Predict the structure of Glutaminase.
Amino acid sequence: GTLPEADLVIRLLDEAHARFAGVEDGAVADYIPALASSDPAQFGLSIVGVHGARHSVGDAGVAFTIQSISKPFVFALMANELGHEKVRELLGVNNSGLPFDSVLAVELNPGRTANPMVNAGAIATTSLVPGADAAAKWEFVRAGLSRFAGRELAVDEEVYASESHSNARNEGIARLLEGYGRIYSDPIEATDIYTRQCSLLVTTEDLAVMSATLADGGVNPITQERVIDEDSCKRTLAVLATAGLYERSGEWLYEVGLPAKSGVSGGIITVIPGKGGLASFSPPLDDAGNSVRGTLATAYLSTTLGLNVFASQ
Ligand code: GLN
């Protein structure tokens, strides 16, 4: 399969931007102090096809921190390292139905971590990263996500410091997991590496390449590098379909019909399996923490471009 022809893709990307740029609903995240100053007007969209075609509109070159969109890529790297059975056993792959930072997701879930797309499961995923010390583990994560993006990614030190100084909740989740034997290295070190991975700077152009790599069975369509094996890629998409948008994952799949992942800085990646990757950025969020304009634009594009994976044609 391929995306529809370039002219139509460009026209509908422009149309989606024009249609939803004026929507004023939602609020920027402020529980991480440095995110509170995000510009609510920013809005960018990018799409990358598995054959390398790239189109963008709006603020597609604006850098922002990746936040929770790092979760599927670290999970994919660990599935690639350990195999899909091991990561399912250690991390879980069921939707929690609860907010991303929920402690109840840990308490009420028999597997404790619930899945790798909420904070508990994501911190546990990062605790599995190989390396002799924290610096080596961090480099594994940074280099791995950079291969998905096809360029060297770097941390926004201000956002990293800001979240590090207001990180009691994530450290608490990691300690709780430790109590259940569901974290696999030092919990505070794992939380720190997780916080760094969330602070990596990306644009929607980067995220669309990263997303297209997941659409392409693990091969980056721009660099042609195989980043992860095909099986790990397929498993990652299954987790995104069930748990990529926190407690709104069901509604998202119902409306959009594609695996996706959101983050609190306002990004969303959407994977069009076998065809390409879409990315949006707009900071105002709904009450589950998903970008309002990003959700609207993605639903519009899925419908108009005919991308829903459940459609018969
Ligand atoms: N770094 C953020 C946190 O752990 C990421 C959360 C998110 O994007 N949902 O709270």
Observations:
- The pocket of glutamine is lined by residues 67-68, 100-101, 119, 163, 170, 198, 263-264, 289 (CB under 6 Å).
- The chain has a mean pLDDT of 96.
- The longest strand covers residues 44-49.
- Strands lie at 44-49, 54-58, 64-65, 201-202, 260-262, 267-272, 276-281.
